[in-house]
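Design request, tokens follow.
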């Protein structure tokens, strides 16, 4: 059943707005908690896709073509709701939420944004100019929930940008106890340099010479070609080649390859097709006599991009095909609509950290909700977890 919170007619509907007083001209903003299957329809998907193109913070992992396949495969019997923000009936915000009783191994009931291991960003989709309205509505929704959740936990959020600033201000101005409980950095590609200049600054002359040698030796084995696709050409074949290539390597042996689990295989298959159909996918492959020996999928979400998945043939490991493919991936530096590329990699990734010099900080925040007693209980939890108390979001 929908749970609606009609808010006052707020100002701040434009970028850079700073006043939130009542004005009749502003749209009526309403947040609704809806069972996720209600949005798995053609008409709502169209509005969802429009929101994604206008989002203040791009996040392909919460777009329709990625989130819906993820929910179909992984939601099971979990009561996952899509919180939608509408302004005069127009979709301007969306975030998947659920109630959990396990907090990183501790029995603490809380509300949180829904994530899974192949979801690498938890930022809500919010139309530019509605950042503050979204967070005000979300916090009000959490306050009014009758469940016994002790706090709100938001995972994998960028700690810069308009969305972060609006959350920080909403928490501070409502005098809520809150804490940033974790931060980590991951590699990002963000530079005005040309690809070759960037590579020169990133790698030593010895390493660049070695890459050139490996490329020559690999080319001696057959017809070596770089394939770059941004349309729907042979999507099903490309997807099957990728999952088979990944499964032949160490991930397949460890049982962590996409093809190792039917659910992750389905998510990947539908997401690649959905992104390609919308012109949001770049596929790069290094092929030797037509056979893929390294493959990479980028999600294009202007002004950013996300390096989603990569795989290489370990039989050719002595030629570093994965690194050679990443050298080709530096062409994104010249993309007229892409200003940065998120690696989606672990903070300590040995290869991409060495090649990409910039970093992006991803944070987890916990925020007090409900009445005075619940907020006091959360403040005690935050002191225990961080050792610094709940003085706000940094």
């Amino acid at each position: 059943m929908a749970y609606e919170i009609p808010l006052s007619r707020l100002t701040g509907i434009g970028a850079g707005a700073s006043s939130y007083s009542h004005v009749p001209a502003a749209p009526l903003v309403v947040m609704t908690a809806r069972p996720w299957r209600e949005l798995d329809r053609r008409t709502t998907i169209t509005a969802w896709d429009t929101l994604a193109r206008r989002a203040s913070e791009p996040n392909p992992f919460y777009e329709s073509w990625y989130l819906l396949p993820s929910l179909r495969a992984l939601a099971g019997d979990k009561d996952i709701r899509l919180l939608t923000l509408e302004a005069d009936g127009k979709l301007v915000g969306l975030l998947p939420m659920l109630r959990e009783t396990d907090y990183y191994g501790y029995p603490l009931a809380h509300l949180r944004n829904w994530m899974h291991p192949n979801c690498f960003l938890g930022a809500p989709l919010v139309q530019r100019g509605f950042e503050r309205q979204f967070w005000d509505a979300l916090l009000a929704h959490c306050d009014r929930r009758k469940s016994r959740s002790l706090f709100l936990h938001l995972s994998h959020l960028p700690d810069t940008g308009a969305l972060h600033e609006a959350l920080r201000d909403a928490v501070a101005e409502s005098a809520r106890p809150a804490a940033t409980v974790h931060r980590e950095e991951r590699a990002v590609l963000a530079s005005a340099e040309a690809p070759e200049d960037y590579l020169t600054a990133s790698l030593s002359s010895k390493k660049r010479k070695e890459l050139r040698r490996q490329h020559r030796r690999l080319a001696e084995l057959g017809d070596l070609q770089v394939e770059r696709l941004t349309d729907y050409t042979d999507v099903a074949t490309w997807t099957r080649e990728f999952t088979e290539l990944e499964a032949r390597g160490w991930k397949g042996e460890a049982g962590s390859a996409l093809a190792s689990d039917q659910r992750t295989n389905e998510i990947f298959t539908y997401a690649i097709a959905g992104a390609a159909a919308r012109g949001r996918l770049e596929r790069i492959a290094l092929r030797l006599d037509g056979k893929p020996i390294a493959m990479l999928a980028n999600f294009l979400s202007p002004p950013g991009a996300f390096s989603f998945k990569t795989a290489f043939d370990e039989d050719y490991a002595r030629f570093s095909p994965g690194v050679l493919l990443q050298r080709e991936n530096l062409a994104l530096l010249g993309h007229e609509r892409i200003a940065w590329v998120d690696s989606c990699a672990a903070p300590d990734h040995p290869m991409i950290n060495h090649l990409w010099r910039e970093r992006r900080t991803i944070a987890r925040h916990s925020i007090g909700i409900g009445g005075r007693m619940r907020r006091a209980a959360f403040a005690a939890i935050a002191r225990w977890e961080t050792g610094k108390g709940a003085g706000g979001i940094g």
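Comment from the thread starter after seeing the answer: thanks! Residues 3-185+362-392 form a domain with the Aminopeptidase fold (CATH 3.40.630.30).
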